[in-house]
Amino acid sequence: MKKDFVILLAPDSFKESMTAKEVCHAMERGIKKANNSISCIHVPMADGGEGTMQSLVDATNGQIYTVEVIGPLGNEVEASYGILGDGETGVIEMASASGIHLVPSEKRNPLITTTYGTGQLIKSCLNHGVKKLLMGIGGSATNDGGIGVVQALGGKFLDKEGKELGFGGGELDKLVTIDLSNFDNRLKDVIVEVACDVNNPLCGKQGASYVFGLQKGATPEIMKVLDNNLRHYGILIKEKLGIDVLYESGAGAAGGLGAGLMAFLNGRLNKGIDMVIKYSKLEEKLPYADMVWTGEGSIDFQTQFGKTPIGVARLAKEYNKPVVALAGRVGTNIETLYTMGIDSIFSITRDITTLEEALEKGQENMEKTAENIIRLMNLNQ
């Protein structure tokens, strides 16, 4: 290795063990133990799912804020949002306010769960004067088409008697009028980008209700009701707003929140990893690196489908950089990953151990594995 060798560290978080930033620090500690002359560039990554807000805030030296919002069942919960280092970009994970983890399994019912709290997070971002809003919409407990978001931002959904609809996808069949006269007008000047890695339409057998309803507590009968309600909702959006969301790819994401963000916030749906690469400025930093390290909690054949290590590797190969991936678990059928930009894959697990112990020792194991990789590289000097 040359004296000023540089490694760019661009891992995802290791769920329940380390944030992406903590992974970077553990990697660097191990690298420096074996060769103190190596420089490291930290770019904490994510793929648009859990950990995206934290990674983008860390990558840009931004700040995280915590507020009380209305949770999916209408009760108050604590949720967080981030403002990136530019001071002009807000980042939200809808699961923080409206996620399925906030609803005990015995209480899951997408007829009544709401995205209202996610709308409150958007409003909090607007209060910072943001010009862009980045949203990850995975892990929802809801099937309300995003009406809760719009309600929190001042929009009204009215029945035939002019009464406002209540929370949940079970209310959408009553919808007659959409009133946006008090909708937060700050949104017209805000670009909304949505991390969405599913292509499900709003309705039908591949739509929000049938594909994702079961995990949210829906029976087959409830799925049919929700699907019919979202169809009615989509038809009214086209009639009242002139926007056709019924068959748009990704409209069915997060129980139809994808459709709601398209229709009411002019949301643009993007692949999660592409959005994170853009706002972490990963590409700007690649030319300065001699090698790239990435990773996530588990690497297996599913990694090829838009996960962080492949997104990082593909971009790194455009700059002819070798790529090493580290994981807590290395699964089966990973051979295809070697054809997609990853040059070598290492498991950081060092002992036969329980999952709990592996998670607890994540940083220690990452540090020791990184050290050993560099010691092997030192032999080439």
> Percent of residues in helical segments?
25-40%
- What is the third-level CATH name, the topology of the largest domain? Glycerate kinase, domain 2
Strand percentage:
15-25%
Strand order of the largest sheet: 3-4-5-6-9-10
Shape: elongated
Could you state the oligomeric state of the chains shown? single chain
SSE string, helices as H and strands as E = EHEHEEEHHEHEEEHHHEHHEHEEHH
What would you give as the CATH superfamily of the largest domain?
A: Glycerate kinase, domain 2
Strand tally is 13
Domain module count: 2
Low-confidence stretches: none
The major β-sheet equals:
6 strands, mixed
The CATH class of the largest domain is identified as Alpha Beta
Structural class: alpha/beta
Q: Architecture of the largest domain, CATH level 2?
A: Alpha-Beta Complex
Mean of pLDDT: 94
Total helix count?
13
